[in-house]
Predict the 3D structure of the following.
Amino acid sequence: MCGIVGVTGNENAVEMLMNGLRRLEYRGYDSAGIYVNDQNGKDYLVKEKGRVADLAKAIGEDVHGSTGIAHTRWATHGQPSVANAHPQVSADGRFYLVHNGVIENYIELRDKYLQDVTFKSETDTEVVVQLIDYFVKHDNLTTLEAFRKVLYLVGDSSYGFLLMDREEPDTLFVAKNKSPLLVGVGNGFNVVCSDAIAMLNYTHDFIEMQDGEIMILTPEKVDIEDEEGHHITRLPFHVSMDASEADKGTYPHYMLKEIDDQPTVMRKLAQTYFNDDGQVTIDDELLADLQSADRLYIVAAGTSYHAGLVGERLFERLAAVPTEAHVSSEFAYNSPILSKHPFFIFLSQSGETADSREVLTEVNAKGYHSLTITNVQNSTLSREATYTMLLNAGPEIAVASTKAYTAQIAVEAIIAKALGEATQQVAAADFDLRHQLGLVANGIQALVDQKERFEAVAKDNFVDQRDAFYIGRGIDYAVSLEASLKLKEITYIHSEGVAAGELKHGPIALIESGTPVIGIITQERTASLTRSNLAETAARGSHIMTIVTKSLAKAHDDIILEDVDEMLTPLLTIIPAQLISYYTSLLKGLDVDKPRNLAKSVTVQ
Ligand code: AGP
């Protein structure tokens, strides 16, 4: 999940590469490096352990160039260190390589070809750059031929490679398989990046790369070759997003900005997917395909999977179609017996999650149809699915996903309503979703306007805690899983979302004096049951809190939410959990946007 950038043909290469790395730091932030060449025999390699800001401090005034590559790392092979940081360099200092992905057979290759090479790092990437050097010398190959030979040898490993050769100082050799990589076309220069937002300050025109392709970039041109070396022409696509959208502006953290973005995101979705007569509108072909399905399979990871659990209920209640949500890394290797006419829905903020892509590859191989709901235009899961629906939530940079979760649920509700109406389901016809999304937007606004209050809740109830539990029933249980994930990933507090009725079958053993237990209560049918389960934990010394919709609230309840339809309450109940996690992380002095051991967009399995 590293971030890689490259530039050829621009005197400000160092500045462009460093700005690109800052924008990609959400992809990995345990070490970083840069290599630039000034085309007059001078070149510079600088690597540092830690953040991009640490690398920036290490870059001397004299470092300059017009062609270069850079990398911010999420360690897969080898501890975070200067030696393991990228670019990795060949023994004689001729070749420089940055890499995003995992080379599965690097040990076999090293043992077969590179017994005499002294390695400076523990990385799989160094094996690749040493191999390129080996074949250039040993087999008298050109750099491109050696690069292609090594790509053949690493097989179906995941990689985004950017290679530079000191003897061809204005050329970037680029290759990808499974990892996201785009080429940006500039005026007299060209760039490469893991994500378009890295280079939106310099170009809005990008060429997508397909797996197995090699691109050779010089300042004037972009050559595309397929696996066999045949030349390919491909037109750039335009990314309309403004670069500033990827900035956090006056916000101290991306997470807080993205939490605050949610009311606008809800209103925008209501505009995008409803016509002027208030009719829900989705792609006709997609709708026809959904209608012919006898079962929907939602496949996703992490927060997106949690949004899928809510989607399961929305599709069953509004469209009366059997629906099951699956964790992609599990589905990839233990898929259930499928129905006769399955349809697959992939949820992915980044559109690049490797586990989900593994399933989609299998789904395509079996000829099934699929829809990807994503926040990234032209992402891999979008390109490879039959249909795409965009969240239009604006860039989500913080590792902890917030607005993508609520946007995914809203889009699932939109599709479920459209499908339900198309199949004459009364529940769907009676469900005024556009109006409800307006209520949701107001309800979220009312909550994000109470930041000080949630900061106090975090301070008084969470900062000093080792454990915390969110409990609920039905759709509230689905939210409690996401609420506890937010707490886990940015505060490092052990937290679990527990089906309230399950507590007494085991988890209640973890309750000690003062352990926070937060009850989510938005479903009339189960409200009193969840309250009794809360009381059972209080009897064992827990500190209970409640998140309740107004119509179900009692005098002693803690966090009261505006009333919205019971199917959409996850869009409100998650907000206090997001803000409590944010402030608990902040008050614990942790890095809210870049929590330890995590990265955004998990492109390795
Ligand atoms: C959520 O806060 C995490 N960043 C993580 O669980 C994330 O949801 C998961 O990796 C899936 O990512 P995707 O939506 O980009 O596929």
Q: What stands out?
A: The chain has a mean pLDDT of 95. Residues 301-304, 348-350, 353, 356, 399-401, 489, 600-602 surround 2-deoxy-2-amino glucitol-6-phosphate (CB under 6 Å).
